[in-house]
Amino acid sequence: MKHIALLLPMLLLLLLPARTFAAIGCTLSNPAQDLKYLYPEMTTYKEELRQLDQMKNGADLFKKLRARLGSDLDPVYESYETPYTVYSIFKGGDLIGIVHGVNVPGKGGVIQVFISAEPGSGEIKSFFFQRIESPAAKALKKKEFREQFNGLTLADFYKHDYFAVAEPTSDKDKVGRIAAPDVGEAGKQDYQASLRGLRKNLVLLDMFVYGLKYEAYYQRSQESLAKSKAK
Prior knowledge:
By secondary structure, the protein is α+β, with helices and mostly antiparallel strands. About 40% of the residues lie in helices and about 20% in strands. Helix 3 runs antiparallel to helix 7 (about 185-210).
């Protein structure tokens, strides 16, 4: 009877719906300290939860997320029920920054990619890793690599979709001009995962904060790609 009593909790755990094990969000480990480091002039901040399955148009946004990431979504870190946290940073009554982070699956485990963005334009002010276990970690964390993304917007990533196929040598492709760090063969997967994390951050912020401000750039890029492929 003792063995049966020990097994019952384990059996009940296995019988729980699969979705119980999904929906893992990404939050700052120490928001007050981390945000103060990013914004020394900060006087206060607001932390807000965003979840697609609780938004009025969430189902449509989830389809958009899948299409704009251009790949299958991870069932653990990118489910319909995944919670996301948006940090709004204030100096007095003025909004001076937006911070957001995401989980993306990497070769050595989950990678946590955060960005700080300009409140009005959505431009990347900085990006950093809260967690990364990878042979490429040292190279990807280098300031010289990360600073190349400062000033880019979601529009630049959408334009890259077109340039990468139709005009791969174009000087207009800001994302394409990023100098990749030397990560070796073992780090390539995590390098690509990190870029995906940046894009995912921007796509979600466009949905949560900026009211799909850059949606027209995505549509234009897709139309241009279709025309290019039809030639």
